[in-house]
Inverse folding.
């Protein structure tokens, strides 16, 4: 059974993005497209942390509620959250109410603000500085890696700067989402469309 499915529109996608309209739209328009602004990277880092142990579809369906609850993932605003805000978030049924992940998001917002003083620039520039020299070229989902030397290095570097919930697997998923690596399957209509990597 092929991991690439051709849809009714004639476009080839991986099996995970072939049926659910929400996942299909996300795959077609967002996943793997370059995100280079601080707020955008902070949002994706936060949502990848919330996704840990859950399906991405769950997070994607809750993304509008997450954005409302976390003030659009503005790092400056989230960095100022106090116990009242944490209690509000833990009472919000629209998001994933996990105390450790909520606290990690606040911690990471503060670390994001502090990172602006780093020579490599803000969170976006810092994360992009771990772009590898090459990208995977998987033909099947089984060939898509879950970590890389760069995601391990990024994880360690972010932890040194006070970030939490930034393990190597989560950071590799972040790098995929941001377009830092291209793990679109060969044969997919999205392969090589980010402008970062050739097909």
């Amino acid at each position: 059974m092929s991991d690439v499915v051709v849809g009714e529109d004639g476009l080839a996608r991986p099996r995970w993005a072939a049926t659910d309209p929400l996942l299909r739209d996300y795959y077609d328009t967002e996943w793997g497209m370059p995100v280079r602004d601080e707020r955008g990277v902070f949002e994706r880092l936060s949502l990848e942390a919330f996704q840990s142990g859950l399906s991405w579809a769950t997070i994607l369906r809750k993304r509008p509620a997450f954005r409302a609850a976390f003030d659009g993932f503005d790092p400056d605003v989230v960095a100022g959250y106090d116990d009242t805000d944490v209690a509000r978030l833990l009472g919000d049924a629209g998001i994933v109410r996990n105390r450790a992940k909520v606290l990690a998001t606040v911690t990471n917002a503060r670390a994001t603000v502090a990172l602006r003083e780093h020579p490599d620039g803000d969170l976006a520039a810092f994360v992009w500085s771990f772009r590898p020299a090459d990208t995977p070229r998987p033909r099947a989902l089984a060939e898509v890696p879950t970590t890389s030397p760069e995601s391990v290095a990024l994880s360690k570097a972010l932890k040194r700067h006070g970030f939490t919930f930034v393990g190597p697997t989560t950071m590799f998923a972040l790098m995929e989402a941001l377009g830092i690596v291209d793990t679109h399957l060969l044969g997919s209509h999205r392969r090589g469309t980010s402008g970062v990597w050739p097909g």
About this structure: The mean pLDDT is 96. The longest helix spans residues 99-115.
